[in-house]
Amino acid sequence: MAESTRGGARLLVVDDNKVNRLLLGRNLELLGHRVAMAENGRVALEMLRREPFDLVLLDIEMPELDGFQVLEQIRNDLQLRDVPVIVTSSLEGVDNVVRCIELGAEDYLNKPVNPGLLKARIGASLEKKRLRDQLKELVRRFATPEVAQDLAQSGFTLGGKRVRGSVLFADIRSFTPLAESQSPEETIELLNTFYTLMFNAISGHGGIVSEIAGDGLMAIFGVPLPLADHCESAALAALEMIELIDLFNVDQKAAGKPQIRIGIGIASGEMVAGYTGTNERATYTCIGDTVNVAARLESHTKVAQCAILIDAATRAGLRSDIPVDALGPVTFRGKTQAVEVFSVNIAGKD
């Protein structure tokens, strides 16, 4: 295995013929790239899964794993499928070329490879990868890692599917008079701090924030990626959210700034999750009765004078050391059946 220390792209040369590896590697290094080498397909896959590469130059006829098998494994691996592969082979025949392209290869070059053609093909493949990396970075910036993974696995289509999970709504209490009492710049800073704290608590327990609206947010647990203990995760996130707000208020009080309170509602059950909007602009969200109940519970925290309210389905999914108090059935606007409401006892949780 050899590797240069110069700049340029990081390339992996895979060939069981040592002379071919060394000569191709030298030519690539002269083009300014950093080169690593693998003597067969098995070693190549181990290296690809261990460290990042920008492009692979792959021979076909090799022991242990041939080039076709390597291409197939790369195509089926979410972490590797975007690494461009250029096949360099002495195998003749259109069928071999077609098979390589169908398995995801960017190009197929016959040995001995023309240096000028090789340089052009590498340049084109690296440019395509750069554009794909930029797109992935944009997705990561404007979507959660879970949604980005769902997009990578399933692709984008408008519509949804039935899933089971927990929905959490949180809202700052008496936000309007608070905003009127300070400058817009101070309000924006307060909201940014609020969201930083809430996002940390939610993501730390496996949830994702799917919507932000002014001084409130909606988070989901168990969607789009399954989460076995989504009820418990949502409740623990809520408890941490309250704890972080309490700590934040200590600093606010010391600085002579306004303190805040929040209300949280959690409901669990079946819902429809997916992408809504248009092909030009869409968002990942959940809809259904479970979502409506969570929103009603959050609003009812003002009436019940409790920080965290949950429904019976969420209560059933909690472990015994999370204390709750039964508040009885409540008939919310727009619902014909009453909802059994429980308050998570903050004072009783260590």
Describe this structure in words.
The chain contains 11 helices and 13 strands. The chain has 350 residues and is α/β, with parallel strands linked by helices. Strands 6, 7, 8, 9, 10, 11, 12 and 13 form an 8-stranded mixed beta sheet that branches. Strands 2-1-3-4-5 form a 5-stranded parallel beta sheet, with helices on both faces. Helix 1 (18-30) links the parallel strand 1 (10-14) and strand 2 (34-38). The longest helix has 28 residues, at 115-142. The two termini are 54 Å apart.
In short:
The chain has eleven helices and 13 strands.
Extended strand count: 13
Helix content: 40-55%
Major sheet: size, sense and barrel closure? Answer: 8 strands, mixed
Low-confidence stretches: 1-6
Order of helices and strands: EHEHEHEHEHHEHHEEHEEHEHEE
Taking all Cα atoms into account, the compactness measure Rg is 27 Å
Global shape: elongated
Mean pLDDT reading: 85
**Strand proportion:** 25-35%
Structural class category: alpha/beta
Q: N-to-C terminal Cα separation, in Å?
A: 54 Å
Work out the helix count: 11
